[in-house]
Amino acid sequence: MSDIALSPAAQQWINVVLIWVGFGTLAGLLATVLFPLRRPAGPFWAVVLGICGSTIGLFGLGWLFPDRGLNPISPLGFLAAAIGAFVLLMIFRLCLAVFGKPKNDAGEP
After folding, report:
1. Residue 7 domain-assigned?
2. Any domain includes 102
3. Closest CA to 50 of 77, 19, 81, 92
4. pLDDT digits (tens, 9 = 90+) for 70-106
């Protein structure tokens, strides 16, 4: 078998993606535990929620503190990611309340 060597830039990108997925998963799980949905969405949506929440939380933190270099692997980065996921859950619940509730499974009016 031949060794497949990645360039340093490719290794850097793979590490960054794995960091965001890992922290996003933790942030999404924390947000869904603290603010659960009425109907379980499943682990895939918790990961997606956490990654999107991490992105939103860290961009928001970067906007508030533009002179600081932010890293998702820090207590402050994790807190920002969890808050971003929590905000996304609140927006999702607000959209459900405004645009309609899911149909009742029991068939009651």
Report:
1. no
2. no
3. 81
4. 666 778 877 888 788 888 888 877 887 788 665 665 5
Q: Domain range spanning residue 76?
A: 43-95
Q: Is residue 27 part of a domain?
A: no
Q: Angle CA(34)–CA(38)–CA(40) in degrees, nearest 5?
A: 85
Domain count of the fold of the chain: 1
Helix (H, G, I), strand (E, B) or coil at 102: coil
Q: What is the pLDDT of residues 49-76, one digit of tens each?
A: 778 887 888 888 888 877 876 666 778 8
The reply to whether the predicted model has a pTM over 0.85 is: no
Q: Give the CA-trace dihedral at 27, 33, 35, 37, to 10 degrees.
A: 110
